[in-house]
Amino acid sequence: SSLGDSAIMDELAHIPAGYSYVKLQDYRLNPEHPPLVKALAGIPLLFLKLNYPLNDISWTTDVNGQWVQGTKFLYESGNNPDKILFWTRLPMILLTVLTGGLIYWWVKTRFGRKVGLMTLTLFAFSPTILAHGRYVTTDIGATLGFFIGIATFIQFLESPTRKNILIAGAAFGIAELLKFSTFLLIPIYAALVIFWAISRMELSYGARAKEGLKLIGKTILVGVAGTALIWAIYGLFMLNYPVERQISDSEFQLSSFGTRPLVNIQATLAANTWTRPLAHYFLGILMVVQRSAGGNTAYFLGEVSNLGSRLYFPVTYLTKET
Description:
Layout: H1 9-24, H2 36-42, H3 57-60, H4 66-75, H5 81-111, H6 113-124, H7 127-132, H8 139-158, H9 162-178, H10 185-199, H11 205-236, H12 243-253, H13 260-270, H14 276-294, E1 298-300, E2 303-305, H15 312-320
Antiparallel strand pairs: 1-2
Helix pairs in contact: 1-2, 1-4, 2-5, 5-6, 5-8, 8-9, 8-10, 9-11, 10-11, 11-14, 12-13, 12-14, 13-14
């Protein structure tokens, strides 16, 4: 079905950004989203002969000129936009299939084949999955990220070995590289650790407290492993992103951010060669917070507003999921 769809709005930004990450190792475009999904979409384009508008002001001068760069790349540089869309969407479709396969395997392992097939059926016929599982956006990445993040953390809680610490850490890092909303895994992990320790009723209060403290320490190691992966991947895609340009871009994009101490932390990280990859990750987090604080205009129940509604997600879920 993706063959009949022109580029959706977000793909105009994500496709040129992903191509610039893998082709140029330059992360000046689309820092408000982590790189992994976009990079996967950009890899097939390395095997095509494409013209990338490096001399346009959207690349040379503008701060995050992603929308103009995307329009130029797809439609005004002599490239075939249908071919670009086909090859960049193919990894997204494969990512969707992988997500379904992992969900089936995990549920089957724990609850049997019948429950696994039922779960996979609900996944495969979800209108939301069918709609978003073919586009170069971070939504299916978030789905995969939350799943592997929680599944591997549960495995870590059941058996907190070094191997499971590394697996959970890698899953956490991958999740953070797929979409910034997976940052919510951190409070989810904290809640899981607390309730896991409380649930060990066969132990005395002192033993449960001791086990809880050990789990907290090992959970910190999970975070350290995930952070190392984030640092490595961001560093790879920033090799040719000039330090001066990163600092000036960050200053511009956070010029209206309200909590200045957080901006100062980001600036300090960006000024250091070793921590500048983490600075760019932190920039993305702050941009998401800034955008959320400003509100997103949407049409809902007969009204156009940027204030949001507590009914939005319940109503959307009930109407979109069969």
